[in-house]
Specification:
about 65% helix, elongated, 7 helices, about 170 residues
């Protein structure tokens, strides 16, 4: 009879991955503690409580709490109640990159709306300032359209690879 169990991940190698990826994300402006929490949860086979995350990272509950709040706000972590407990556990949605970049695009709509108001305040794109703000607005419109297109292409690609859509992605 064959043994179907997978070997356990090497804890030190996983820790190195978490820290290196968190540093790479921090280098481009992502909060480092949030990145450490994200990649710790992503690397876990099961959802983790805040205490478990803190224990793995060697940090306080307060540090984990702030990072979890940040990540749940952007849909990169999902919070689930622990049955018969006041604690919650956290897991990564099936597709956090899609979740954070495609479904949370209100950011670009907000930029577009504010820039449009700026163009109006500057009396249109006929002045140098108005032209610059209109170009910024048009760029954000373009980015939004491209993100929408990327999301559709990503869904097609995942479906072609046999990944069924999940309710949380």
């Amino acid at each position: 009879m064959a043994d179907d169990r997978r070997p356990a991940p090497d804890a030190e190698e996983v820790h190195l991955f978490v820290e290196r990826m968190a540093m790479a994300f921090a280098d481009v402006g992502f909060p480092r503690m949030a990145a450490r929490v994200l990649f710790t949860v992503m690397s876990a086979d099961e959802p983790l409580t805040a205490a478990e995350i803190g224990e793995q990272l060697g940090v306080s509950a307060a540090a984990v709490s702030g990072a979890v709040r940040y990540l749940t706000q952007f849909g990169m972590l999902l919070r689930e109640p622990v049955p018969r407990s006041r604690r919650d556990r956290y897991r990564v949605p099936d597709n956090p990159w899609y979740e954070a970049t495609i479904t949370k695009t209100g950011l670009y709509k907000n930029f577009i709306d504010i820039a449009s108001a700026g163009v109006d305040a500057l009396r249109g794109p006929v002045t140098p300032g108005g032209e610059r703000v209109a170009e910024m607005r048009d760029f954000f419109v373009f980015v939004q359209e491209e993100i929408d297109s990327l999301g559709e292409r990503w869904r097609i690609r995942r479906a072609a690879a046999g990944h069924a859509p999940r309710a949380d992605s």
